[in-house]
Write a structure and sequence with these properties.
With 113 residues, the chain is α+β, with helices and mostly antiparallel strands. It has one domain: Alpha-Beta Plaits (2-Layer Sandwich). The protein has a four-stranded antiparallel β-sheet, covered by helices on one side.
Length: 113
């Protein structure tokens, strides 16, 4: 399975996971078809969305002030399409919902971030 990391700051893992699942439901229900089309993407089959994206969160005891790495795991079927969906639709929506200062695809611990 393919994986990709992103980082959140001062956000509860459950809120982020719930938001991702909500966006996936909107994709499944066709509510984002226009946005997908404008981005050059097609809506994935419902069967592909069933196990499309899952998040692996941090363990307990992390500082709420710290940036936290979350791993996105793309399901085995249509992983490349799901990665495109993640990068073009889901991650930008998370940034709009929670703020670009709270969600990053770049590692804030790296000097170039």
């Amino acid at each position: 399975m393919k994986r990709e990391a992103f980082f959140v700051h001062r956000l509860d893992f459950g809120r982020v996971d719930d938001a991702v699942q909500e966006i996936l439901r909107e994709v499944r229900d066709g509510k984002l078809d226009d946005e997908l089309r404008r981005s050059g993407l097609k809506r994935p089959a419902v069967s592909d969305l069933e196990e499309a994206v899952s998040l692996e969160g941090p363990g307990a005891g992390l500082s709420p002030e710290a940036w936290v790495k979350i791993i996105v795991v793309f399901g085995p079927v249509a992983a490349d399409a799901m990665r495109d969906l993640w990068r073009v639709v889901i991650l930008p929506r998370l940034k709009r919902r929670f703020g670009s200062d709270a969600v990053s695809q770049d590692d804030p611990h790296q000097p170039n971030a």
